[in-house]
Amino acid sequence: MDVNGDRPHGPLLVAERVRKVYRTGGVEVEALAGLDLTVQRGELVAVMGPSGSGKTTLLNCLSGLDDIDGGRVLVEGEDLFAMSDARRTSHRARAMGFVFQAFNLIPVFTAAENVELPLLLNGVAARPARAAAVRMLERVGLGHRTTHRPSELSGGEQQRVTIARALAARPAIVWADEPTGNLDTHMADQVIALLHELNREDGQTIVLVTHDQGVGASAGRLVRMRDGRLVGDERRPLAPVGG
Amino acid sequence: MYPNLTPALVGLLGAALAVTAVLALRGPLARRLALRQVNRRRGEAALVVTGSVLGTAIIVGSFIVGDTFNFSIKQGAYDHLGVIDEVVGSPTPGQGEAAARRLAALAGDPDVDGLLAVRRHQAAAAKGDGGGRKGEPRASVVEVDFAAAARFEGAAASLAGPAPGPGQAVLNQRLASSLDARPGDRLTFYLYGRPVELAVARVVPARGLAGFGEDGAFVAAGSLDAAVAAGGAGRGAGAGAGPETLTLVSNTGGVEGGNAASDRVARKLTVALGPLAREGTSVDKAKQEVLGEARQAGDELGSLFLFVGSFAVIAGVLLLVNVFVMLAEERKPELGMLRAVGMRRGRLVRGFVVEGAVYALAAAVLGVLAGLAVGRAVVEVAARILAGFSPSEGGLDLAFKVTPTSLVNGFALGFLIAFATVALTSIRISRINIIAAIRDLPGEGGRRLKRRWVVVSTLAAAGSGAAAAVAIADSQGIGT
Predict the structure, then answer these.
(1) Cβ–Cβ below 8 Å for A117 and B345
(2) Interface test with B, best of A106, A117, A162 (most B CBs within 10 A)
(3) Which member of A29, B310, B391, B406 has the greatest number of CB atoms within 10 A?
(4) Where are the domains of chain B?
């Protein structure tokens, strides 16, 4: 869903024969080996696989954060790698949100300032951006922490601020890379429950990379990877999650 | 120093500040990020400022050294020449007196404040005998009409006071110091191979007319005629054998202002000399020449110090680049995240430029203050060294001098160097690999980027250095 609430037709994301090769010295490692993947609007897709299977590389390439060596990636019908860096960056600001394992909040900004960041980058005026940021923080249960800086928040709170930031601009898709990797079980359950809630209630499309079987099992769709290829793709009804 | 560089430097400074102001005002996000970062990392901010202060201090210090030498040499010229702007000299005493008569016609000229004819004899001077004998082989004995000299110099006449009687001389401080002479002492002057005894009537400071003779003794006009005649150097003797008859000219406008009319007055003097000008009588624009030499010496010394200091400036720039890159390295995950959530490279650069401008501005202010201290220290050391030499050996009384031009130029140069360094470094920083930055890993292709950066920065430094060298070489330093 875009900022105006319109829902264009067709799949949200189409990846065709995507290749990614890492070169270290004279050695080439094929991290993505001609991978195909389609994500529909409103899906919550969990990507799982053993270490080195290419999960994070897949997320980085499909989001346009990293370059690819072959194939193409269409997001809302637009080819990410046919765009200039500046246009791809703007597209990312408009259509994507990110949640990383290490939170990566801007330490000199308060929670509200971190959340309003994508809105400001999208050209939203300061006042409505702040109001939307505060609403989003309230939505993730941090309405009372808007003026706190990351160093004053717990790990779980920081990750919820990250989720609020990822959702603030109402992006078409949210990419989450091991979002519970730095959290204890209780906080991890809260974060996963929040992602499910946002997917269920707002129809937010989410692709999350995880090595946690429980998290994977709770997703509506589970994609499995090995050696840079998709080796499994299961769709099932959403399971209840903790929190 | 270098007032002809000021308009360009101030223009560039204004442009850089205007660009920064526009970026800060039109980019509230970049401004907020920049100012918060400055406040958050005070230690690193202090390092960046220190790196930049070093360069600015050296530049300002160099300019101050130039100012001081320029001013001191000029002041020496004013002390030495006083109101004398031109000196008309002739190859023979007879021609000198003819010239003085012809030039008397200019007494009413609006550009000419006064004319004074003097006779100067080269002599060796000595005091005492035996083991305690003191001597000065290159003294001058100047015959002058003391009343006319007082009118010529005006209120602050250097020879003011009673004219010395027969067998007496007024000594300037320089000669008195050389001979350790005091009023009442008897001195022997060797004029044209014949000893002439003169008693010291009084000692006056060696400034103005009293400084004109360098190591000079001043006697009443005509008092040496007998000695000159007895020595065989009478009127009409060949060049170099007798006294020089010189006409000293003071232009309207005082000690410093009179110099402005020197070219015009020199033309009038040449016209007034008529055929004598073709027969060897020449007009020497004494003050203008000394001031020109002073300016050149000041500029050369300042440039020399700036050249030596440029290594410290380059070191400061490299320190600034390193500290700024280190600063960015520490923030890499944040920068990666900013790029990930949609901040364009240009916006990232703008944020760094605003932050860098804050550092550059603080460093320029502190650098000017530090430069004053550096300049003062160098002048103190130089003054001690030069104090060991006499004026004829290149000695000089240094008077610490700072011109607003030097401070403005130093401030602008310091700011612009830091600003340009930070801006160029920011472009390099903005080319981070987003994934590597978020994960705090070394970026791909870093080696290639670094090599390119080194080449580009070296070319930029060489270009800037060449441009600065050309600009400095072309500079005349007028009005410093």
Answers:
(1) no
(2) A106
(3) B406
(4) 3-80+294-474, 86-284
